[in-house]
Design brief:
Layout lengths: L4 H17 L5 H7 L6 H13 L3 E2 L8 E2 L1 H18 L19 H16 L2 E5 L8 E9 L3 E8 L4 E7 L6 H15 L22 H15 L8 E4 L1 H5 L7 H11 L2 H12 L4 E5 L11 E10 L3 E10 L4 H21 L2
Antiparallel strand pairs: 1-2, 3-7, 3-10, 4-5, 5-6, 8-9, 9-10
Helix pairs in contact: 1-3, 2-3, 5-11
Length: 345
């Protein structure tokens, strides 16, 4: 069967109506309320063919039809992208209106941002802080405690603080620790954490006695790099809003959705996996490849902190979400969030 322009328009009409009302769409409703100027019988025939092609389905108890994952995918890839292209200069979406203090910690900004994104979209919003592998060196402190024990405090450009302790060998004094701190802070500032190695450090001949100490600190930094991403921070807001959607009245569906939205590790994995390679991505139902997500869609993107480190941002909602509104708001949101951090650099 040919995917004609008329079929595309009818598919768009079905998706738009289902997004708006959450009710299966019948040919009679389209014939009565739309401007197609087609009979109910003609529309019914086209909808039957769209169902045979895999773009529509229908509940057993209803004569109306609903979009399939394939139908939503076509809608997002063609109709929505075309609409967003036409309205690329539309500034009707609100800008971020959060009072960020100059010294406000980045993680507090991300938490408040997740709350505001939920208000923009009315769906579950997630913001993931950049991992240490995506961060740059900002500052380090070396502290001596309990005799010969060493505490390293590493601060990245994203404001994250990592601590590692070790036994201090070599009889180094507090002055030696300060000398090593000065060398590291001077020579490593703004370097990518993941690329840091002893070859980056140039030690003057008079300070050669610090080489073993500096090597030890580099090893402690590499330990931080090996940290599994599950220990990263994710900020989530609006989980209850998903359960307020009319399609989640079935107990089994509610249990499936709860298993997903209560699992921060899974949410972070979804967001990081799907936002890694592209600036913007939409995953629908079965495309999420996780148990319990077949009734959900994820829209994910990336933002930057100080132009370097990259974090992930996304919205999780029902497959029936308003893709056009969410994509437009999320795109504006990530650009404004990047701009906010750039202005603080």
């Amino acid at each position: 069967m040919e995917f004609t322009e008329r079929k595309i328009e009818i598919l768009k009409e079905v998706v738009d109506r289902f997004i708006a009302k959450a009710d299966p769409v019948s040919s009679e409703k389209i014939a009565r309320d739309s401007e197609f100027n087609l009979s109910s019988a003609t529309i019914r025939k086209e909808m039957a063919e769209l169902e045979a092609m895999g773009y529509l389905t229908h509940p057993h108890t209803s004569a109306g039809r609903t979009p399939t994952d394939k139908g939503y995918r076509f809608y997002v890839d063609n109709v929505i992208k075309e609409e967003l292209g036409v309205n690329a200069g539309d500034e009707s979406s609100p800008a971020l209106d959060i009072a960020f203090g100059k010294n406000m910690e980045i993680e507090i900004i991300l938490q408040k941002s997740a709350e505001m994104l939920t208000r923009f979209t009315n769906y579950l919003s997630m913001v993931v802080a950049p991992t240490i592998q995506q961060s740059r060196f900002k500052h380090i402190e070396l502290l001596k405690f309990h005799g010969e024990n060493l505490l390293m405090v590493l601060i990245t450009d994203t404001g994250r603080v990592y601590k590692r302790s070790s036994v201090l060998e070599g009889g180094y004094t507090d002055l030696d620790l300060q000398a090593a701190t000065n060398i590291l802070n001077l020579q490593l500032r703004d370097k990518n954490i993941i690329d840091i190695g002893i070859e980056d450090i140039k030690i003057q001949k008079g300070d050669s006695y610090l080489i073993l100490l500096v090597n030890k600190i580099i090893d402690l930094i590499k330990e931080c790099i090996k940290e599994n991403f599950q220990y990263n921070r994710i900020f989530i807001h609006g989980a209850s809003l998903i359960l307020q959607q009319p399609e989640f009245i079935d107990l089994k569906k509610i249990q499936n959705v709860l298993r997903v939205i209560e699992n921060e590790y899974l949410l972070m994995k979804l967001l990081l996996d799907f936002s890694r390679d592209k600036d913007f991505i939409v995953k629908i139902g079965s495309e999420l490849f996780e148990e319990g997500t077949e009734d959900l869609s994820l829209i994910a993107s990336k933002y930057k902190i100080y132009g370097n480190s990259t974090g992930a941002i996304g919205v999780l909602g029902p497959k029936r979400m308003d893709y056009s509104r969410v994509i437009r708001n999320l795109n504006l949101f990530r650009r404004n969030l990047t701009s906010i951090f750039s202005s603080r650099a």
